[in-house]
Amino acid sequence: MDRYAQLFILGSPRSGTTFLSRLLEQTRYGKPIETHFITKYHKKLPQYGDLSKKSNFNRLMRDILAERPVQQWRLDLDLNDFFDRVSPDYRYGNIVNQLMVYRHGGRDGVSWGDKTPHYIGDAERLFDLFPEARYIYIVRDGRDVALSLLKKEWGPSNTVSCAEYWARQNSHPAVQDRLYRGESVYFLTYEDLLAKPAETIRSLYEFLGESVDPDKLDALIKETQAANSFKWRQTMSPRQIRQFEALAGGVLKRFGYPVISTNPRLRFLEKPLFHIHEKVSKWLFLLKTNLVDGALIRFFGKEPFNK
C-alpha cells in the first residue's frame, strides 16, 4: 500500500475538523471528507470471511456502498471490475484505498484525506490499517464544543452529556500515547489555529511535506475567524460552566484550558436526571432519523447527511 498516502484528521465533533479540511484542500490529499464506514466494517470483517473469495468480497462491498455517506458519492461501481482491480491484495486497508482511488477518478497512486469525527474513538484501528498515514489531531475548548453540539439535534442534549462526551473523545489512550511519543500525529488547538493562522498553517503544511506560496497563505488566513473562540465565556450560564468543569475539568487542564469554577461539583441527582434526558432525546432523534428521514431518502430523494 506504499503507492498511496492517507491523511486522517482526528477530533471530536464541532472541534474544527471541517474548517481544517478546507485549509488543506490545496495539498496532495485534497479536501478530507467523511467516510464513516472504515472502522465500522473493520470491526465486522470476521462476518465476511476470506475477502479473496468473490462472494465474500461482493457482500462486503454491497454493505459499504449501502452506507448513507457512501451513497452520496454516487459511485457507478462494477463489483466484478473492482474485484479485479483490488487483486491480488485483498487486505481491508487496500480495499479502502482502492475505493477512495475510484472515488477520485481511478488514478493510481492517489492521496486522500478523511475527517470522520468518530474515528478518534477507533484511532488504534486506523494506526494498524494505515501505519504510514499522517494524522492531525485538533482539540477545541470543550465548553465551546458543547455550545455547538447543543444546536445539533444529533448531538448530546444537555451540558452534562456534552462534558462526558467531549472528555471521553479526547482521552483515548492510543491517540494520547502517540502524542507523547511524537509519532506521526500533529497536534493543534482550534484556538491556536484562529489566533496564529499563518504560523499554524505553515507548520501544518511542513508536517505534510507540502509547500504553500504567500498568496495562497494569505487566502487561507482570510478564512480564519479569531472571534469564533471562547464564546462560552459570554454564552454559558454559571450553572452550565460548573456542570461542564465538574466532569471535564481535568481534560480541559490537560490541554491548557482554564477552569474558572472553584471546586466544581454536580449537585444531587443532576447526573442521573440529565442521563434520563439524554436517553429520551436520543431515542426521539433515532426515531426521526430511521423512520422519517429514511422514508424521505428512499422515496423523495433527500440527501443523506445533508446537514
From TrEMBL:
The keyword Transferase applies. GO terms for biological process: N-acetylglucosamine metabolic process; sulfur compound metabolic process. GO terms for molecular function: N-acetylglucosamine 6-O-sulfotransferase activity. It comes from the Bacteria. Keywords: Transferase. The keyword Disulfide bond does not apply. InterPro entries: Gal/GlcNAc/GalNAc_ST, P-loop_NTPase. This is Sulfotransferase family protein.
